[in-house]
Specification:
four-stranded antiparallel sheet; alpha+beta; two-stranded antiparallel sheet; flat; 139 residues; 3 helices
Length: 139
């Protein structure tokens, strides 16, 4: 038997515990993490569908005051706009032909990504009848 390896009852107990940990406990701890990583929220159509048939007051109570309101042909339109910006900082060592850490630095500017989403609800006779959305931030 190699030096430092436990023998007897204590060694068997440790080996059984290690086997149990590998086969049962570790997968049970990792499963929620793996399932959580795959979770996605429903598309915007599914999230907005419950507002169809609600009153205008219920819509405003749920989503807040709209950014714009328009009326035409006996129909009222409530528009909600959302705009988000994400800034990724530039890298002073990124060159055109790969990553470099020698010579004078070549700076790249920060990357700014702007996402917009505009949702318009159509209201007829005080009830929401339809909705439309547009923009690259509507998810």
């Amino acid at each position: 038997m190699p030096k430092g390896v436990p023998t007897g009852r204590l060694g068997r107990y440790q080996r059984r515990l290690a086997g149990l940990l590998r086969r049962a406990i570790l997968p049970a701890l990792l499963l929620p993490l793996l399932l959580g990583a795959c979770a996605t929220e429903p598309p915007i159509e599914v999230r907005l569908q419950p507002f169809i048939g609600k009153t205008e007051a219920e819509l405003v109570q749920a989503l807040g005051v709209p950014n714009g309101t328009f009326e035409t042909g006996g129909e009222r339109f409530l528009q909600y706009d959302e705009r988000t910006s994400t800034v990724y900082p530039g890298d002073p060592y990124w060159g055109g032909f790969g990553y470099r850490r020698f010579g004078a630095p070549i700076y790249t500017p920060p990357l700014v990504i702007v996402r917009n989403c505009s949702v318009t609800f159509a209201v007829r006779q005080g009830r929401v009848t339809a909705f439309t959305f547009r923009g690259n931030g509507c998810r």
